[in-house]
Amino acid sequence: MPLRGGRPARTTPGPNPTIAVPAEKLFRHWRNVRHLSALFPHLDAVEILSDTESRWKAHGPGGVPVVWNSRIDKVRENELITWHTLEGADLPHRGTVLFRPAPGGRGTEVSLTLAYHPPGGAGGDAVSRLFGVAPERQAREALRRLKRLMEVGALPTIDGQPSGRGESRSRIQEVMG
């Protein structure tokens, strides 16, 4: 999938998780772009400019700000959403999210494909992988978060849970000791 300038873009290979939720509900959630910051933690803000355009602010490796405007190209209700970034984007990309009935009526298969040119070319791509923010990983994690959020109603967190360090380790040493 080429982007500006005709050069081929990297494309994210993606898993197609089955989410035990009707396609209509998943589609509505994704179509409201304000919900996407819960799926992509690097997103800081999404501003709706019109029915088809929005401005995105994110942070890249090392907290570097990344900004782009995006336009929705195609919408097939409860089935497909495609988009692309507009001229001047810090991270030019195209994306497609597809919702298909899962076999045996088990819910909906969701696929997410992103085609992008990493900022800084191959060097920028290597840095993003080093910091764990490669788009392939972000797409895979976004679908994992979508599944958890839509099936359970919340994203799991370890906030407020003991870490197994500190006092409990000292206590084990006392008992063993």
| Strand-pairing-aware structural class | alpha+beta
How many E-type strands? Answer: 8
Principal-axes geometry comes out as globular
Report mean pLDDT, rounded to a whole number: 79
What is the element string, with H for helices and E for strands?
EEHEEEEEEHHH
Helix content: 25-40%
**Number of discrete helical segments:** 4
Q: Classify the beta-strand content into a percent band.
A: 25-35%
Alpha-carbon distance between the two ends? 63 Å
User: In angstroms, what is the radius of gyration?
Assistant: 19 Å
Low-confidence stretches: 4-9, 126-132, 168-177
Q: What characterizes the major β-sheet? A: 8 strands, antiparallel
What does this molecule look like?
This protein is of the alpha+beta class and 177 residues long. It is 27% helix and 30% strand. The protein has four helices and eight strands. Strands 1, 2, 3, 4, 5, 6, 7 and 8 form an eight-stranded antiparallel β-sheet that branches. It is globular. The N and C termini lie far apart (63 Å). The C terminus is likely disordered.
